[in-house]
């Protein structure tokens, strides 16, 4: 590999050759200071997924791609417990139809774009308990978003808020199976035997529209600020989408009150942020990669049939303060469909080996996103710990996974 490339892995982690070649090619691009491949690294269309890359004086919108703002939201519920038929029925009801039917979709979209979760506080008819969640969100410390592009359909994007989308995105109710660091787990309201809500989603087509609007290979100087102004809007919109998804599951669990919630955090997997490399200003691109700054809580997502791990970041410079965002694919969606169909019936795919249930409106996703299509998450997490990027905090077992 090129000298400015780092791969976080181990002999126990399966790694495809094309993903490694794509990682190597990234390091040869003009301005690239370094690139770090995570143990969930896998090949993408133009660049690998599961990578953190720093450029000295330019940004590359194509590296972020059409899923700008993709990330994960976790909410801990220490004293809430529900499963089985009751949870499945309530989750189906909670995830049908618009999340906030009393609010005009275009107003919802613009509020999300401009202010993220806190921006919803300016809306009339926001449920009181949801308003409390929004008010508890920390300020992201970023400048205002650019105005919502007039070429984009605010009403259509508003209607998409509160939906998971396709691919590997999901909404999940999980049980806290084990806690290894009680103090850190308490920050997110996680206790052994308690529940958690996980929402993994992106910007629901908004990122794709942004990628088409900014199709240049690279941007420099003032163009960076203009693009990042719109990227901030897409990231804030995506954060609202995850919060609304989590809100739906909170309602299903009977935990949609601030008194039931023990803690919450959100991490963004696809974005560009300023950083420093050896004292030099740089632009850190994360593509399918979770932030793990010193003492930051983050989460490495398993498949619907495997644990997800909440972790504490250590701010490791050699990892560009990042960790894997999940287990990572080992099969393409076409390969997964062919192999899973040969081994499983469609009805059996609505249950998992860990005793979880699956609600999925798209039969194709039952095959494409089957746990067999993913790497084993445990060696992925082991590799991150061994490298010194993060420590384990708590394991979450999926009880109900929703993809609709």
Q: What's the SSE blueprint?
A:
Blueprint: E1 5-7, H1 17-27, E2 32-42, E3 49-55, H2 61-64, E4 71-77, H3 84-94, H4 105-119, H5 128-135, H6 154-160, E5 170-179, H7 182-187, E6 195-201, H8 206-213, H9 222-253, E7 263-268, E8 271-277, E9 280-287, E10 289-291, E11 297-300, E12 308-313, E13 322-324, H10 333-343, E14 357-360, H11 363-368, H12 377-387, E15 390-403
Parallel strand pairs: 1-2, 14-15
Antiparallel strand pairs: 2-3, 3-9, 4-6, 4-7, 5-6, 5-15, 8-9, 10-13, 11-12, 12-15
Helix pairs in contact: 3-9, 4-6, 4-9
Care to describe what's here?
This protein is α+β, with helices and mostly antiparallel strands and about 400 residues long. The chain has a single domain (about 5-404), classed as tRNA-splicing ligase RtcB. Helix content is about 30%, strand content about 25%. Strands 4, 5, 6, 7, 11, 12, 14 and 15 form an 8-stranded mixed beta sheet that branches. The chain has a 5-stranded mixed beta sheet with strand order 1-2-3-9-8, with helices on both faces. β8 and β9 (about 280-285) form a beta hairpin. α3 (about 85-95) crosses α9. The mean pLDDT is about 95.
